[in-house]
Amino acid sequence: MKTPDLIGSAVTNTFRSKTRTILTILSIFIGAFTLAITSGLGTGINAYIDDTVSGVGASDAMTVTKTAEGAGDPLATDEPREYDPDAVSTGIPGMTVTALTPDDIDTIQGIEGVIRVDPQRNISPDFVQFEDGTRFVASVGSLVAGQTTVLADGTEPDNDTADYQVALPQSYVQPLGFDTDADAIGQTVTIGITDALRTRHSIDATVVGITEAALASPTGSSILINATLTDALFEAQSTGIPAEEADRHSSASVWFDPDATDAEVEALKERLAGAGFTGTTIADQLGTITTVIDGVVLVLNAFAIIALLAAAFGIVNTLYMSVQERTREIGLMKAMGMGSGRLFGLFSLEATFIGFLGSAIGAAVAIAAGTGLSSVLSGTLLADLPGLTLIAFDPASVAAIILLVMAIAFLAGTLPAARAAKADPVDSLRYE
């Protein structure tokens, strides 16, 4: 029997006992469906994290601060904290850090393993306004090393241009007087800021992008500005303040070797700690989140694998029954010259085909159900997380699931296939 004939015969034989085969396929379907859904869940969430992770920072940089004495959660203790004249706000109510001075920046730059240090400036504008419209309270969202933001339209402000550029939050578009996100691009808005002498300065900037809220959005509802506008606003804000007072920073972005190992990064953190600084990398910020997500998906996948193993016993039972029922047929095939290898292959192909049907149907239904569920959730419960597709399907992952189930089915079919291959033709022909 040639290979194409062998495959055709295996497919035909699979449905000799339709009810038994359908029940076996159904059990495989449940496992494959569960595995595809859980895999899609992991793919969707991890893709969302990948899309927004750049809003947290680059993998070859860390945020460095100098922690103030007694700084931390103001709710952690009822005792008042001692006043620190060198403390500056982090932007979080009650959270302060000791300001980084130019000498601190030089110290950090001199630490082994540090490639570059970018001090972070704190800017507090009063408002943002379009033409003569309503003035809205504005804050400046700061980007630490390697951060980006999720854009609804346009581009991020360019730090290499001499023009003043700004990206507005999507929630500000219509209140400022624009009909759509696209209408705001290219328009000029005015940013007001007050200096230490209570003099108000107004600086015009071009809108180049519209940001949308995201899980790890660095700006939230704040405006995002480029380096040139940052310098202009900072200079205006610092008018009337002595240079040594103005040049104080809440944090700094420290860049290190992108090829550094985990051990080398930890060593750099220790050297910074020895100098009185605290370094926090993107892995520190996201490590717990990704670990929990991966753990949940792993547990769900484990349940799916258990279902598939249960289905494997169904395949064994189905094929054992098939071998039993076709004993005389097996004897006849062997008597006509069909080798044990071909006979083994015939029953193995039947098992594999059953696995393919169950997994393919399960994956197809999972994709349809997952896509529909994600669509519904994105407009209801998950509406506050724009850009999130809860259940997403990677073609490679779906194909891998189908192949995995087929492999399990093949292994499950080896026992009855081996029994058929070892059957004695004389005894088989005499079987009643």
Q: If you had to describe this structure to a student in words, what would you say it looks like?
A:
By secondary structure, the chain is α+β, with helices and mostly antiparallel strands. Helix 1 packs across helix 11, helix 9 packs across helix 11 and helix 9 runs parallel beside helix 12. The strands form 2 sheets. Strands 5, 6, 7, 8, 9, 10 and 11 form a 7-stranded mixed β-sheet that branches. Strands 1, 2, 3, 4, 12 and 13 form a 6-stranded antiparallel β-sheet that branches. The two termini are about 25 Å apart.
Overview in brief:
The chain is of the alpha+beta class and 432 residues long. Helices cover 50% and strands 15% of the residues. It has helices at residues 3-14, 18-52, 102-109, 173-176, 181-184, 227-237, 243-246, 262-274, 282-325, 327-335, 340-378, 395-422, 425-430; strands at residues 61-67, 87-89, 96-98, 116-120, 127-130, 136-137, 151-154, 165-169, 188-194, 200-211, 224-225, 251-255, 278-281.
Mind describing the biggest β-sheet? 7 strands, mixed
* Cα-based radius of gyration, to the nearest Å: 33 Å
Order of helices and strands: HHEEEHEEEEEHHEEEHHEHEHHHHH
Quickly count the domains: 2
What overall form do the CA principal axes indicate? elongated
**Strand-residue fraction?**
5-15%
Number of helices: 13
Spans of at least 5 consecutive residues whose pLDDT stays below 50 are 70-77, 215-220
Distance between the termini: 26 Å
Average per-residue pLDDT, rounded, comes to: 78
Structural class: alpha+beta
Number of beta-strand segments: 13
> Percent of residues in helical segments?
40-55%
Domain MacB-like periplasmic core: 21-267
Enzyme class: hydrolase
Pfam families: FtsX (PF02687), MacB_PCD (PF12704)
GO molecular function: ATP binding; hydrolase activity; transmembrane transporter activity
